[in-house]
Amino acid sequence: MSVRLYHVDAFSDRRFAGNPAAVCLLPKPAEERWMQSVGTEMNLSETAFLCPEEGGFRLRWFTPKVEVSLCGHATLASAHVLWEEGMVPAAKDIVFHTKSGKLTARRKGGLIELDFPARKAAPSKPPKGLLEALGVRAKSFGRSLEDYLVEVGSEEELRRMEPDFGLLAKVDTRGTMVTCLSRSKEYDFVSRFFAPAVGVFEDPVTGSAHCCLGPFWGERLGKTEMIGYQASARGGVVWVRLNGSRVILGGKAVTVLAGELSA
Fold this sequence. Notes:
This protein is of the alpha+beta class. It has two domains: 2-108 and 250-262, Diaminopimelate Epimerase, Chain A, domain 1 (Roll); 122-243, Roll (Diaminopimelate Epimerase, Chain A, domain 1), CATH 3.10.310.10. The chain has six helices and 18 strands. A hairpin with a 2-residue loop joins β16 and β17 (246-251). The N and C termini lie close together (6 Å).
């Protein structure tokens, strides 16, 4: 048996930029152990697994090491594949059933928009070793549902970071967002995201992090619509719109490779 597998660069309008995700189209639910093995084999920050369910699709995400409860770029990649392959009509919204509840994707103005839960960061104290591992001084610090959020004083400081990943992996968290105001008028804020504990040293563009970054910067800037730039080596742009307890994430995607996986 074989299943269709796609390699998609998400949060980018060109190949070899943004965040790469693998998207696996399944005719029926697969065993968790097998999906984790595929995620390890793909060795991307996330591999998405889709199968039809209740008028939409069951969606699960695996890093090379673990399953995660929310992932933005692999959801964007999944919606892109479903529309591009004609599995869902171009004008129809897509419903995903996930561990984070029902998520939806729609096309709007050249973007794919994802309706995700907002995850606000509560002020807190840094755990032992975190700031030392990052090599930065925190202007402010908080904790969301799964991640830490560190605000630094300048984009220069953010961009020149070289974390100690061995030390950072010992911190009890899925990942750590580092963010600051953008020095460019093109964007409202910039960020980077590190998650060595789940097998991802630096994630190129992290949609789920913007579920927290959106409310964080929206409150400080007095805005409900913003543009974030994730300043990884590959880089990527995320459009953010606040909608009460939800965050709308917008982005683009492009298919790099399509093939079959021997299952």
